[in-house]
Amino acid sequence: MAEVAVLGSGFIGLSCAYWLIRDGHRVTLLDPQGPGEATSYGNAGTFANYGCIPVNNPDVFRNLPRFLFSSTSPLRIRWGYLPQLAPWLVRFMLSATRSRYEHSARALASILSRAFDGYREMLATSTLASFVQQRECLYLYSNPGSFKAAQPSLDLRRSLGVQFDTVDRDGIRQIEPDLAPIFEHGILFGGSWFLSDPRGFLQALHTSMLAQGLQHERVAINTIEPQRNGVHLIDESGRTHGAEHAIVCTGALSKRFARQCGDRVPLDTERGYHVHFPFTSHLLSRPCGWAERGFYMTPMTGGIRAAGTVELGGFGPRKNPALLSLLTTSAQQALPGLPQPDSTWLGFRPSLPDGLPVIGRSRASPRVVYAFGHQHLGVTLGGVTGSVVADLVAGRTPAFDLNPYSPSRF
Ligand SMILES: Cc1cc2nc3c(=O)[nH]c(=O)nc-3n(C[C@H](O)[C@H](O)[C@H](O)COP(=O)(O)OP(=O)(O)OC[C@H]3O[C@@H](n4cnc5c(N)ncnc54)[C@H](O)[C@@H]3O)c2cc1C
Predict the structure, then answer these.
(1) Are 274 and 184 in a shared domain?
(2) Same domain, 140 and 183
């Protein structure tokens, strides 16, 4: 039994805390924010066990002009951020060869195939299970050309064990009658589900762990200093928090801690947005993703959340009105019953250029373990990440190869 400090109380940090407490460790969360208040708050809430296709596919070069200059493109770059983004972007482009793309897809499929095992036990408690909606996610294509263009990636998914069924226009209408009749093809992903309130789920998990002895210190950590038999964590006021092990789960803000521990990881952020339509949840029974527009509409507690898009533009808090407008009008086009949204949100996906997370021990000390960079999949991969982090702390061999996620792969 050891003293373990977990930095960050999003999906990744709380899942790590869960598995570490299960192993009998004394766990302290260090985070100035409450559970699920950063990127883990505003996501689309899908358990996307099918999400093994990285963004950096070999067609990215061919599609780039359309992505960057079409008014309905869900991908944007803040050109003023380009100088800082350049190293990440170059690595992203270099990852877009067939062999690297397929390597990332295989590595994602490997961890995704274990994603449910990471949550199974948590979801045996009725409070947490009450947030889970067992409805498969539906992916929609409005343009037959883009459905055709998606076939190689669908074939790759199938070859990697992802189960799905295709549905036609009539099938879509039967499943989701309130959708506008603009979708020609749909994909229903087997075994996927969604959370009706991602932050509510994390708050309930946090409450149950406090009852089991979890401590939560509301401090921001500035510096990690590995010691011979432990780790010192120095907060903003200069106070030192000691622990035998430290787990870095600070999402998109993890890069500096890796650097302090001797690892240069090219972490950046893919900004994403949501708009919320109050009192509309009855219009859908499941998350519906509009493939060409890069977002999901998820029926959550309180209304439909349209969440997605990718903006490469760093950490500034300023929202992009064009992307919010695209999300709003696209959602209203797909679901004509939607009113005006009552709120908008911007979040920061922690993303590495090869589309894989970083899970592993630091160069400076095996007592500092990283768990960040879960890009579009942090909700899905929280549980399994927590379970392998607990393995690393205990010195157990994880059930699958962690080399693809190694911090030293860059
Ligand atoms: C629009 C959108 C839709 C998405 N949809 C989905 C989806 O449907 N399914 C899915 O699986 N994933 C989805 N994601 C991705 C998912 O939300 C993220 O991968 C996930 O939330 C990342 O979790 P995290 O715990 O790593 O980071 P965060 O939730 O960002 O948590 C990091 C924590 O670290 C803390 N912190 C930061 N700095 C410090 C410091 N110095 N000291 C102490 N604490 C610190 C922060 O306060 C924060 O609480 C989506 C993301 C976006 C933006």
Answers:
(1) yes
(2) yes
